Amino acid sequence: MKKLALLVLIVLACIWILPIFTMFITASKSSEQATSQPLPWQLPKPFSLGENASIAWNSGGLKNGFINSFFYGVVGSLFAIFFASLAAYALVNLNIKMKFFWFIVIYSGTIFPFQMFLIPLFEMYQKINLYDTIGGLALFYIAVAIPFCLFVLHNYFTTIPREIAEAAKIDGASSFHIYARFYIPLSYPAIAVLFLFQFTWIWNDLLFGLVLSKSEQVRPIMPSLAGLMGIYSTINIASVLAGGIIASVPTLLLFVLLNRNFIYGLTLSTSRK
Amino acid sequence: MKKVSFLDYVYLLPALVFVGVFLLYPVVRTVYISFTNWDGLTTPSFVGISNYSRLLRDPIFIHSLLNTGIWVLATLLLPVGIGLLVASISSKKPGEVFFKWIFYLPYAFSLTTTGVLWSFLLNPAQIGGTFNAILEAIGLGAYTKRWLYEPPWNTYAMIAAYTWQTMGTNMILFLVGLQNIPQEPIEASQIDGATGWQTYRYIIWPLLQPIATVVVLMALINSFKVFDVIWVMTQGGPFRSSETLAVTMYRESFTMFQMGYGAAIAIVLTAFELLLAWIYLRRTFQQEL
Predict the structure, then answer these.
(1) How much is the pTM?
(2) CB of B202 within 8 Å of any CB in chain A?
(3) Counting CB atoms within 10 angstroms of each CB, which of A230, B169, B172, B224 has the fewest?
């Protein structure tokens, strides 16, 4: 029984690792070899990963997408965390009426499926000339990340002893001072996890990039990769796969370096103590 | 009680404005648009519930709804089921960390990248499909297919890709749940001579219920909204055979510019999702308040 269980585990592990292995092997083959020899144990000859990656990066247009998404990911998550932390601070520590109501108003942003946002955003962006602009996408990514950040920071702030704020207040500290000097530094662990999560989410977004942008100069990376797939899939699949690897570099790096935080973040978003 | 200071509300303002303008206003506006006929350019004209009655008569929508149902059921069976299986087998065993890494690794690839990769794997062999080539290499050449072009195989193929990417997340959550189960009742049952299966069925499984409920609900909610994998792998085709509600909504709205009809589909999708989210939130806030 134990042996059978282990066998199941090993077989599944092989199935799970094979696609990744195949992706790296195939992205290293020439475009002809990728088509004529698609098996993962047919090794690349000549080794063409650099060439394929450069096709995807330059003529495939992933370069712009990469830079754009990096910008969206950093700006979107940082501003979302900033705004959400201000709101969470107010709801935990300041003198505000109907706290639960305001919390629900902001948190309700996570409840609806994204399909509820698409048409009016498209309409609004056309009207106020935000459609297909870098600013337009950045603004949306900030907004969409705020509710979850508020949820986590609100929980986190309630664990910070109120005595800290009260002592500082007696010493004459302003409420913003208490926020910036105590609440934010004490929450660095939660903020780091939120940054990791929101950056990854924005980096991986396909839907809003498709709807709110059209030009290569504005498109995030995932719509660019999907576009590359549409154009190159029959003529040069090796460079499309190389593009897939390029598009995964930041998330892979974060994953390998910060695996623990991913798992912590995952549990944050589901189980609460 | 201190006086309420206006300044305190300023802290709330940026979050409220962003969420209000970019998320909540669109929700309300979508409800309105779903009662109009709108091509995205002219002014929307009010048409009452005709978009909704059209849904009931539209074979493409019905088919899309059925596909969504298949996705939801398959998500329970595969990413959640395999996640539970793998977590239960490997929990607190040597090699747990190794297996955890392997099964969780696909999470580092986006669903778009997953779609790109699996499109290649499932291509017809002549243009470099790895899966078909493997079938031929091991003597199962009779089973090769144009996986992404033949319904219902295209839906099953995409579910496989989705399972590959998402299973690890469920496994991790189950592992966390298993980790938090106290050791004493398990040991007690073993002393009393319970078999491994009995211990699992009567001790571990009931204690795993809370986290299992969360995992199932989250997986259900996500499977209702699946878009990226389908858009990359088949764009819902061929002949709209593999669309789900999210893809149909996108296609009607942004390639056919039937915004009113698209909005109505979004509302149907939301109704299903809110039902599940309501169960989930009720649990969350029960613990909290």
Answers:
(1) 0.90
(2) no
(3) A230
A180 inside 8 A of chain B by CB: no
CA–CA distance, A79 with A142 (Å, rounded to integer) = 6
CATH class of A60-268: mainly alpha
Q: Does the CB of B33 have a partner CB in chain A at under 8 Å?
A: yes
- Domain limits of chain A? 60-268
* pLDDT at residue B3 greater than cutoff 60: no
Q: What is the pLDDT of residue B125?
A: 62
- Using the predicted structure, report yes or no on whether residue B237 has a pLDDT greater than 90: no
Confidence of residue B64 (pLDDT cuts 50, 70, 90): very high
Distance from CA of A136 to the nearest CA of B (A): 10
pLDDT band at A143 (very low <50, low <70, confident <90, very high): very high
Statement: residue A272 has pLDDT above 60: no
Mutation for B interface: A119, A124, A176, A241, most B CBs within 10 A = A119
Q: Residues of A with CB below 8 A from B109's CB?
A: 20, 244, 248, 251-252
Q: Which residues does residue B45 pair with via DSSP β-bridges, in sequence order?
A: B37
Residue B39 burial class via C-beta count within 10 angstroms: exposed 0-12, middle 13-18, buried 19 and up: exposed
Residue tagged 């793998």 (tokens): B86
Could A259 and B215 be called an inter-chain contact, meaning their C-beta atoms sit closer than 8 Å? no
| pLDDT attached to residue A205 | 95
- Scanning the structure block, which residue is given the tokens 């909204």? B225
What is the rounded CA–CA span in Å between residue B218 and residue B277?
8
Q: Which residues of B touch A113 (CB under 8 A)?
A: 224-225, 246, 266, 269-270, 273
pLDDT tier at A53, thresholds 50, 70, 90: confident
Cβ contact, residue pair A86, B119, below 8 Å: no
A76-114 per-position pLDDT tens digit: 999 999 999 999 999 998 888 888 999 999 998 888 999
Query: Which domains does chain B carry?
Result: 58-288 (1.10.3720.10)
Q: Which two structure tokens, joined as six digits, stand for A84?
A: 């959400």
Q: What mean pLDDT value characterizes chain A?
A: 89
Q: What is the mean pLDDT of residues A68-77?
A: 96
B130 to chain A: which residues are within 8 Å by CB? 22, 26, 38-40
Q: Which tokens hold the place of A85?
A: 């932390």
